[in-house]
## 1
Amino acid sequence: MKRLIKALLRPKVLVLLTLLGLLVALPLVGYWAWQKRIPQKIALVMRNIVYNLFIEKHPKGDIYGVVKIGEMKEVYISELELPEEEEEKKPEEKKEEKPGEKPVEELPALEEEPETEVALAPKEPVKVKRLPLHKFPKEFLPLKRVLHPPFKMGACAVCHQVNEHGEVIKVGNRYPLTKPRIDELCYTCHKERYLKKYDHKPVKEGKCLKCHDPHQSDTKKLLKAPSVPLLCASCHAPDKARKLRIKKVVDINVRYKHKPVDKDCTKCHDPHTSDHPKLLITSLDWRMEFCLDCHAKVKDPEVRKKIDIRPLITKAKVKHDAVYKKNKCMNCHNVHGSNNRGMLWKNPVQQCLECHNKPLKKRENGYVLMNMEKHLKENKYWHKPIEEYEKRGGCAACHNPHGSDNIFILKGFFPEGFYVRGLAFKDLICFNCHKERERFTQKYTTTATKFRNGNLNLHWVHVQGRKGRSCVACHDPHASQWPTLIGKYTNFNGILFPINYKKTPTGGSCAPACHDEYRYDRLRPVENVPKKGG
């Protein structure tokens, strides 16, 4: 230990350690100073000192501040008097009389009427000087990034009343303004008045200072919050809106936020006034067309690139009614944000069940869709995308909620009939997820599937040949009483036949309308003999 201390106390080592300490400390101190804006503040102070001492030298008689129009009186000038020097030089005019011309008798001079009104001389305008930086009230220091121009110039008299000495008047803790209403004061410079069809309430009430600081801010436009969304949330957040009795509520503390809500609300709304409802900046229908102005292209996770959804909405063969009814896009999406993926009002499954909680008739073909909410409640086992909606996307894993050219607005091809001739697993939407090809291509197997009689692959038996069945002949794509999603009914040409599926520890049996009761067993193969006349 002593040797270590002696080694560290050597001059060269001390110098080296000091240099290393400085190398580490200087960037940290510099970063801290930059965050606190110390260099900017020092530069601003030095600039003001140099500007006031050497550059800004005003001759006597310069006026800074506001001259009140009410203090001026109209002045009438009766005659223009020449300067004394010119009067002396002016020669006296003599009239020459012409021969034979009678002299014109001069008319007697009219008596001057006494003046009834004497013009008042204008009051001398108040002379004010710019307020130097070191005299700014302490509450304004250190200065912020964005300064209101009159405040930056120290021309406080532009907005505040001054006395005969040009000093700003202070009454208690207040500095009286030159106008009784703050909005009238603002309009003396900001000439654009907000007189459109819809006004933001603070604008309508003349409360400019609800959103803007009249002196300085760290945010553009002199806003009273670090960003536009945070400023809007100061009134429109759920808890604030409840207290202020504001109907329009926006929660920005959600998991999935609309990008303008996260960055700048003015991308969609005018913060002052608008001719369009919701203070929108466009006449486009905000329930769809305005959304599509930006959202024509959305990410498709399957192709991993953006696709244009306009054709799906406008030209798709199979349309989703929810896209067109009443609030259109807003039927499913919260335009500001939510805690659900895709900014849905509810989770992907519950959102669909908002409408699919009763039988629905399809307008394309009159087909009646089942009460899906009831179906899911009655069956214990759900299709994985529905069960694991956060991970797999819910109903949208198979259906395109905006529209499709496939039946049931499916994202891929699926046959309408009971049979599929020349079935190719790569063509059906089911095989986008179910990749086990050998389950449908191998006649004999002991590992590819549990649906086998001994080693005879019963999946292969059902899908091959001229009468290959579609997946939904046996399986329910939504929910079932069994883990393998065996359906309760099979739909044959619009008629529902019970499948009568029974499960055993090593196999099972079924007796649909297409054949008698057939049994299968993985360990002890069963020979199924059709009944006579069956």
## 2
Amino acid sequence: MTVDRAKPECDAARMMRWSCWLLLCLACGIGPAQQVRLDAGQPPQADAGTDAGAHEPPDAGLDAGETRDAGDPADLAPVRWPQVSPVTHDVDADLASVLERPALAGACARVEAGGADQATRLRCGKWMFFNETFGTVGVPTALLDFNQKHFSAFFGRGFEQLGFVADPASANGHPIGLSPTTGKLGNVETTAFTCASCHFGKLADGRYAVGYANLRLDYGQFLVTLGAPLSLSFNANDANVAPAVRARLGPHVEAAKQTQGFTVEAGLVGLSLLGAGSGPNLSVAEQERFLALDPGSMDFLTKPLLDDGVWTVSRIIPLWNLPDASQRATAGLPHERLSWNGGVQTLEEFLKGFVAIGVGASAWNDARLAPLAEYIRSLRAPAPIAVADAAVVRDGARLFVTRGCLGCHDGPSGESSRVFGFAEIGTDDVYAKIYNAPDGGSPCCGLGGDPSVVTRGVKAPRLAGVFTQGRLLHNGALQGLDALFCLTPRRGPLPDGRGDQGHTMTCEGLSDDEKRQLISYLKSL
């Protein structure tokens, strides 16, 4: 077989359109909770037999035995939620224990056959969380296999260098959170993202946790580099590939080309992808903007996805501690306030909007979506990795109330009961333009939805598990709590257009000791 290198069958720009499935990263990213549940894992330093907080009262993160004064403001601060017996096993240092594949096998079939007990429904929901693609179109499976076979030194086994968790059961080196799908690119078989791609990962202490906001996921790098190795295999100087990508991948491609049969295999893969059809390309400038993104952040409404015409970057949100209807009523939350702009009212509404991208909303009614929604609602924050002295934590909780933090973070898990204008918070306001809707209008570009979805504001996020979040603000521009409280310098304007300004209430009018007390309190949640 002769491969014409002067006219490559597949270049990087063409490959990039195959990332349309990444919208799924946000599909399961935001939602409420119905059942408060014990996480099954614990920090390694805790008793291996129990979760570190399994027998704590609801406010044990604040009070480790000291006597409270009547009317102490610390009593009003958000606390770690009470623990109840688990059904699924969602936090553990042992990956197989968290995946619990034998326990999940067949659960959805039993639900379809009429099984209505809670354990079966939650196990079905967890299976869906890790495996269900809703028929969305994904990445050409042959391309994933090709990259893992020849470029695992660059991508890592299971694409771990880009923030994924490798699936130990995958013979071809696929990651957890990518599953075979019925959606095809033309006649090309694809593998699509599931909820686990963005909401499952490894904590700093080695525990794996479901519901974790995977801020290690390097969406920009994955998007831009996925098709580049094949393109550069045909043309090492392909001008359609960003120079930074050519420089990084060039040595890997040259080494691969020296292996027996590589050129023929690359040609066959390229030919097999001809059946994928055509799609939008990313210019070099657009590639460079994606490459500049921090891991865990993305604009999910832009090329090669459905494009709303504005660059509005947001970070992935954890799924833990989502309040139920009673909790929302007590806190004055009018509805579930999903997405960073707080405009989507229910998890079911969010999921239905997503599945329409795949096989269509009509194929996924409330009954079929219910196990997944119930499982997402069951997730809760894992026990903190380490908790400071109880008195310091309680001092921080007191400051949280007396210094006004509760005014914004007044929900059952520290979320806000209302949406704020960006001028109130002072943060980067570009996200107000998401959906590119006219004043008083509905989202653009056929996205549909009630005009109330377009809030042009931002909500305060839940604080449960904030100790796991090394990236903060709605756009992910701040690197951790120390930067939020200005104990370390902020970075200023970022190459991808984001800014880390605003939220100065955590910087001004507080001593360094008070800031550290507040941080200790937040890390206890």
## 3
Amino acid sequence: MKKLLTLFVTILCVISISTSLIACGDTPTLKDITGVNFVGATYDYDGNEKTLLIKDSLPSGITATYSNNKATNAGEYTATVTLKGAGYKDLTLSATLTINKISYDMSNAKWDYEEPFIYDGTEKSVNVINLPNGVSVKNYTDNAKTNVGNYVATATFNYDVTNYLEPTISPCNWSINSEEGGNENQGGNENQGGNENQGGNENQGGGPQIDLTGLADKVISSFGNTPSPWSYFPQTFAPENKAVSNVINYNNFVDVSSIPTNGIGKQLNVVYGVLNKSSVALSYVSKVYSVLNIVKSLYTNFIDENPEEYKNFSGTAGGINFTLILTEEQYLINANVSSVSVTIYSNLADKNYGAKVQLTPTTILKYTVGESNLTIALDVLDTSSTLINLERDSKGVTGMVYEYLTLGDKQITATSAMISVNSTHTTLIGTKGDFIPTSVSRNCEVYRNSDGKLVGTEVREEVEVAGLTDTYNTLWYNLYNVTGINSIKKLDEMNGTNADTIYINGSSDTIHTKLGGLTAGKKAGSRRFDIEFKKMYFYQYNQQKEEYEEVSMEIPMIFIQEEFLSSFESDFYDKNKSALTGAVTLNATSADKNAVNYGYYTLLTEYDKLKDAVTHKQITDYCKQ
């Protein structure tokens, strides 16, 4: 019995071990499914269903089950496919099905405004016409008015937000004129038509895909601040530091010490003209900037309640009507300040900002502010145009000024200037000045930064006579730099060598110059030196207008041909010793003389490379953009 029991237990153990070995060692191994790819696809919305399928051949015995792989409306869809088969591990793959929103064809859409209305006491309006199917006007701003004025109308639209990009149309600048034709907006219906915001994949899937959190702050802060053009120049150059109380005439002797020394020459005056005109325009821009915090608050509430319509918002802030427009390239605010149309903008890609100011129907000022540069342009009637560009770096400020006057397609005048501001002096080189008629001329004006005074000028004049070219290199210094001259009188009478007849130190005898000394051409008999009067510019304060106004005044200066600089003191004394009170000395400092020399012989070469770099058309095109 004991042996039978032992045998039975042994058999059970063998069976148990064998069964265990079979269970562990003979389980079949499942294979991976390979060679199958599930690839995403992108389509443009066309109203038809789009389907995402595996393009590869499935291994024998493998089946595919899809999920979320079909769609008709624009959006992004995550499609999946699960692959199964006997002897294979299950495999799930995913891919993205993208259906892009498309643009409406807005090429025929336009405002029905063609010319200014005439005021008659009834309401006038402008409307958008020729809209494509599926688009209708949702809201107008400032498209209906009764009173005389210039207006900027905008429109937003009802449309299929799920499948189409937002249709847009540029604002319409329109006017109601008095019977006399005032306030006419010659600009008319600028940038009509739309089809703007073409392409792109923004705002996919029916709702805005950008983060609207903090958007209002981001938009408003991108407009920067009202620029300060004068900050590119020494403080001593501010107009208030160029003020005079009266204009001097020289019919009687005038003490040299009483002659103003804070004036500016013709070259620098071009810069002042642009900056002064920009100050007027910037006063309107500043009024828009003053209400931007209100705009930000209103816009924040608007996008909280209307997130789908964040790209276009209109309202009133501080009595200023405005329209905020967001595109992929720019943020814009169009506003009316009194009768002046102001658009401030920020360019997203270039990371700069600026403003366009329609001062009158025919006068536009536009500026752009970069990280370390400022461009200002002025266009009047497409006839007169000026542009100034200023750039600041660790060495100082450099810039260019371009000024044109045209009549039709004919260019009447074209001038330009280079600006260089270093730690001690400001230099302007260009084509504005008093030159020999028909000469090819350059003018180098140098000012001292510490007091803003003109310390010296050198003029180059190339004159062709009988096929030969004479080059005059003429230095000009202030009369107070020459000792021995205490007073001066001028009669507007030509004396054979000078356009005026000039007396010094109470003498009844006119001053005398010295001729000749050079062997080349006409220049051989020219004056070595003389005193002439240059027109310079100052400012006087207008109490009524509370602003500084430009005035011009003639200022006596000594000119010296550069070749005779070393002999000037003795030359002048020899010819005029009977009228002098003492020795003649040119007291211009070495620093001032070196600055004039550097401008004339180094910067002038750089100027010649840039003097024609910007055209009249480029300026007017920039102003209108």
